[in-house]
Amino acid sequence: MKSTDLRIIPGLISLAIILLLWFVVPAPENVSDNAWHLLALFVGTIVAIIGKVMPIGAIAILAITLVAITGVTNDNPSGAIKDALSGFSNSLIWLIGIAIIISRGLAKTGLGNRIGYYFISLFGRKTIGIGYALALSELIIAPVTPSNTARGGGIIHPIMKSIATSFGSSPEEGTSRKIGHYLALVNYHINPITSAMFITATAPNPLIVKLIADATGADISITWGTWALAALLPGLVCIALVPLIVYAVYPPEIKSTPDARTYAKSKLTEMGVMSYGEKIMISVFALLLILWAGVPAMILGPDYKVNTTAVAFLGLSVLLITGVLSWEDVLKEKQAWDTVIWFSALVMMATFLNKLGLVAWFSTVVESNIKELGFDWIASTIILVVIYFYAHYFFASTTAHITAMFAAFYVAGLALGAPPLYLGLLLAGASSLMMSLTHYATGTSPIIFGSGYVSMENWWVMGLIMSVVNLIIWGVVGGLWWKLLGYW
């Protein structure tokens, strides 16, 4: 018998939840049957993602199929399938898909490794310097790597492991605490911060932009430049603190590492002079950042404004024309196509939950419960964000968490009196920073945790400490920075 990707028990649980909500639990007052039935499909989908019933792309296909067949969004069969496939027309989804393909060039050309070893050759005299080198490497490549897993787990982590191994630090020999334990924690805790700093640094960020725009009737439409500028100061402060805090909590046994610079320089020598492909990749990265930041429009006027997704297509086109990426590379980038599919399904369901009034109903429930406490908007917002953030202990996917909770909590915060852009930026930051909590919080977690350098107890302790630090910085330093920028 042929094995499948299907996990039976979590699958049955997901199905039971759908049937229970659909047939047993009545729709609350002021909620239509169609809205409630779509919620049943949505909750079942989220539970299936959390339970890893099937690969997320396969779950997305099932969700699209159920929306189309049940007609929860449209009684007309033609209209129902059109609604079910509507997510594929969202340009932000294609922005992430194309950017993931572009980031393939980092691995193919070796540019990602060169950046990492270059910073270690500069700052690697001390162990803490290696920590900052890893952090700077993450920061440099974050704007053009929408997969935080590929960035933290696929590019930075192998570099971190090679450095640790060169100092005789390995889990197998019981020598993790020499240096590998420290570097693995820095490697991981920089990842959520860089993910929070750019729209294009992790896949769910464009979904947040859309949810905020939908909730405010497009009054708040966060651009790539607005997000990057808003996250710049709190992000840099967080990055500056991570190596220091990890060092204070779990100091490495080896503190001086003069050989690290020598090792990094030998790796750079081994790589040789910068290749044609690497030079093209750097040029494309510069082009993307200039256009995404809206520099031509700032200098030459609004007529020179370019759509963010169109810029991503331009970057990919340059890589194809120059031969840095082949069409075969594009076709082989499974993660990109997988992301386009599951992202489209979740965006579609979230959009229609909003259109059918379910998000407004749920946000009213959240708002009324917090309002009963009698606090002002500042205290209410803190409570709201803390609940949203620490609910991630129950999620193994930031995408599932954001899709399930972001819109309702954002609308509830607006009703409680929070400034729209301040609240949006704070929740957007929290949506990435919550990755710090557990060893299953996002795709990067199991890769770095699975290397064995950090025990589960140490991982959770460090995660809790960094979660508090990051939230305070994003809320206080970020809030003051956004006030200075005139965002609220």
TrEMBL record:
One of its GO terms (molecular function) is transmembrane transporter activity. GO terms for cellular component: membrane. The keyword Transmembrane applies. PANTHER family: DICARBOXYLATE TRANSPORTER 2.1, CHLOROPLASTIC. The keyword Transmembrane applies. It comes from Cocleimonas flava. This is DASS family divalent anion:Na+ symporter. Pfam families: Na_sulph_symp.
